[in-house]
């Protein structure tokens, strides 16, 4: 039997990783605009007890992964955890044969199209959209550079999905030490999405601002601006104290913060151009500044392992600049949507 699903398109945003691009592939297959859906949400959450060492880590707070990524749209996702590699492949094959692409977790170490092949273990996400039983091949797509769409042996994919993803050496440890476990994911989306008009955009922006302004209560969970400040302060204090575990935690947590800010900046710019809303385009530039602060934050903590204390002062300066620009962005957004 051979199955090849159509309408599989690459989608890529430079400030995101495999999570957003894989969800974009699945949403695009259903006929939806990925940026309209994935770019609407903007917030900050961190649950210290739920940190996961995987490229597709995202704080979900009881929601499905896609619901957390796209809180303003009627979408959801479901993870499946099969008992073994054979069962995992049969489950994926069955869904693809029925006409739906699926996302699968995989170890880059086992994927010949990834730069980390046979070099570095890491917990990655790709899309399966076809297979050929006679040839023993599976069709996968991965928009993350260097970008690949094509066939690989089913046995190769099964090895990547069944990997223990072990920590091997002292390089690129951020997404290792967490078994792949053959997990796979499907999404569901309503056939009709909210109309992308001024009322919808205004409502989304005001909801995002309200979530940022909502006090987090000082609980263990970091939420909104309060939680973001606490997280940044804690990272800086721990570096100053010589804590070399900040590198892993800070790098993983900053990934979603960077991605959602970058996507939201482009979403706002798109809305501003499409709806003739110049002040929204101006505000988008400040949200983009916030995203790039997160990028610099991520680089700083990633390189802090050998001498944490030396990274404390640069990180503190970056955290202060991030907080100031974030406040400026929220002020501009509020003014733009409330006075237009």
Structural class: alpha+beta
Average pLDDT, all residues = 93
User: Largest sheet, described in full?
Assistant: 7 strands, antiparallel
* Low-pLDDT residue spans: none
Roughly what percent helix? 40-55%
What's the helix-strand series? EHHEHEHEEEEHEHEHHHH
The shape is globular
Number of DSSP E strands: 9
How much of the residues is beta strand, in percent?
5-15%
How many helices in DSSP terms? Answer: 10
| CA-atom Rg in angstroms | 20 Å
Termini distance? 57 Å
List key phrases describing it.
340 residues, alpha+beta, seven-stranded antiparallel beta sheet, two-stranded antiparallel ribbon, 10 helices, globular
What does this 3D model show about the protein?
- The protein has 340 residues and is of the alpha+beta class.
- Helices cover 47% and strands 14% of the residues.
- The protein is built from 10 helices and 9 strands.
- The protein has helices at residues 18-29, 34-38, 65-69, 85-97, 154-161, 198-213, 224-240, 246-274, 278-302, 308-338; strands at 2-4, 45-46, 75-80, 102-107, 123-132, 137-142, 148-153, 184-189, 222-223.
- Strands 1, 3, 4, 5, 6, 7 and 8 form a 7-stranded antiparallel β-sheet that branches. A two-stranded antiparallel ribbon has the order 2-9.
- A hairpin with a 5-residue loop joins β6 (137-142) and β7.
- α6 (198-213) packs across α10, α7 (224-240) packs antiparallel against α10 and α9 runs antiparallel to α10.
- The protein is globular.
- The mean pLDDT is 93.
